[in-house]
Specification:
This protein has one domain: Undecaprenyl pyrophosphate synthetase (3-Layer(aba) Sandwich). The chain contains seven helices and six strands; from the N terminus they run βααβαβαβααββα. Helix 3 packs parallel to helix 4. The structure holds 3-methylbut-3-enyl trihydrogen diphosphate (IPE) (2 copies) and magnesium ion. The site of one 3-methylbut-3-enyl trihydrogen diphosphate has 12 residues, from strand 2. It holds the Pfam family Prenyltransf. Homodimer. Its cofactor is Mg(2+).
Length: about 240
Amino acid sequence: MIPQHIAVIMDGNGRWAKARGMKRHEGHRAGVESARAVVTRCRELGVRHLTLYTFSTENWARPEEEKRVLFDLLVRFLKGELSTLVEQDIRLRLLGDIGRFPMAVRETLRMATNKTAHCRSMTLNLALNYGGRDEILRAVRSLLAEGVDASKLTAEQFEEALYTQGQPDPELVIRTSGEQRLSNFLLWQAAYSEFYFTPTLWPDFGAEELEKAVDDYSRRQRRFGKTGDQVQPTDSIASRGSAG
Ligand code: IPE
Ligand code: IPE
Ligand code: MG
């Protein structure tokens, strides 16, 4: 079965470059090509939501020079891909507070989200200045500011205050480069995700390995707390039981 939502922690660009005696930014440049390939193949496979962890709240700690390169690559990617996104009916959405990015980056992001707002075949979420804890805190703050009735607050209502509002949780979370951690990614949404960890460095990850991950996922049994016998192949977290 093809997951509706795949989320990817694109890691290992720096190590890929280092292994080749190149500068880190060459790794990021190569990483953009992997992102392009994965977007295209997800669209072909019929994945409805793809989330790419592009810049975390912790990544601000990186050297200024590296951040400049990353932002520059992001702007180029969006400008270069815009017509393809529209052609392929892919809507761009942003997860994270983009207010902290330089003006030129913010403007490109706004332009690209506006120009793809009508697209419906797939949603491409770019997680930018994204952190799961930050997202949860912001949701709590906004609900408090609205004066929500604490005793009546539901999980569904809470989810409406998250950046991913209106989108299903990722069934599959992929992380490249051999690291086996979430690094503050989709803490709420990944509660019942399946994980696929691969030692492949992000610039070496492409359409083929994406299919391998999807194939691996499709052979797993998701149980959502039930016994293996109770579970139906179509079960989702929505039918996970009385506590839901
Ligand atoms: C992922 O590659 C890209 C970002 C986090 C922006 P890294 O830059 O983290 O590469 P490594 O982990 O140092 O190899
Ligand atoms: C996670 O990668 C963030 C992104 C892929 C954008 P990092 O390289 O920043 O994660 P850590 O620091 O190794 O956990
Ligand atoms: Mg890394």
